[in-house]
Structures are given as C-alpha cells and as structure tokens.
C-alpha cells in the first residue's frame, strides 16, 4: 500500500503554484495505468475508502498516487479555494506524467472534494476516466447543486455513494455509473462492496 504517513521520506514532494503537494506513490513493475486520488476537504489520504480503492487498483497492476493538496502538507485543515486546488492538482499530474509514468492511461479521482477537483480538471489533464467516492452533490443551506461538475466530464465516470449520504445521490448518466452502498458519506459501512464496485469498473474502462 502507498504510505500515508506525512513523515515518510519516500513520499514525493511536487512543486505547485500554491506550495508543495505530497504524493504517496506505489508503482508495480509493469504498470498498465496510473490512478491519482485526492482527499476530502478536511481529511487526508488515509481515509478508508481511498485506501481500499488504492489496494484494489494496485492488485490490478495499476500505479497509484495518493495526493495531498498543498494546504494539507502545510498543516492546514481549511481547504484552499477551488481554483488553487485545481491548479495544484494539474501541476501534480503534469509532473508525474513527464517522468517514468508518461504514456500510461490516466484515471483521476478522489473522495468528496477530491472527486470534485478530478471532475473539474478531467479534460485539462487528459484523464481517460474519473472515479468519484462520496461526491458531495448538494451543499448545505440551499446552495446550487454541483451536478454540473459531474455533467461536465465527457469520459467514463464511476460514482460510489452511501445510501444515507447527507449530500444526496447523483443520478446516473450516459457515461456515468452510480453505485449506491449502505452507509453515509464516509463509505465505511461496506468496504467489500466498494472494492467490488471499483475493481469491476476499473477492469471495464482500462484497455486489456
């Protein structure tokens, strides 16, 4: 598994326009694709759903990077503005794809806020597919739905959502599969179901 210890010296620091990001990277001997996953707004890369997803991907021969945004690397819990998150994410993708991982099919994703970043930047970074864990569809206090972020993605999308997620359930779409599992926004209640959904989808969207 990729390390989630911020003190781990093997983690990769990547310069971005908004400070260094940290990538916990695991690369098999002959990777068939690259999966990059971002964390939630107030959480980190050790969230159970992220670790379960990373484990499934590595078992399929996929290189996995768990990406910590610069604000988390700097020790802050309050998230940066969306434009900064997106710019930092794009810088990480560009750095990784300029090295030994160049040319691999790219899947981007994450949980909650990280899923939103992946959706907003999918076209710009050249993602072949997007994996969303606990997408926060409907913000509180009657603010506008975030469905346009999902609808703006024109490559295959998987959304794994808890049935009792207070942020609601995104609808399926022409290229968007939605898997509803028992539980809430944390996706802790059915890790086996999460693994099965992610593994099946990855096997379908990646070239043989």
UniProtKB/TrEMBL annotation:
<dbReference type="InterPro" id="IPR046879">
    <property type="entry name" value="KANL3/Tex30_Abhydrolase"/>
</dbReference>
<dbReference type="GO" id="GO:0016787">
    <property type="term" value="F:hydrolase activity"/>
</dbReference>
<keyword id="KW-0378">Hydrolase</keyword>
<feature type="domain" description="KANL3/Tex30 alpha/beta hydrolase-like">
    <location>
        <begin position="32"/>
        <end position="169"/>
    </location>
</feature>
<protein>
    <submittedName>
        <fullName>Alpha/beta family hydrolase</fullName>
    </submittedName>
</protein>
<dbReference type="InterPro" id="IPR026555">
    <property type="entry name" value="NSL3/Tex30"/>
</dbReference>
<dbReference type="Pfam" id="PF20408">
    <property type="entry name" value="Abhydrolase_11"/>
</dbReference>
<dbReference type="InterPro" id="IPR029058">
    <property type="entry name" value="AB_hydrolase_fold"/>
</dbReference>
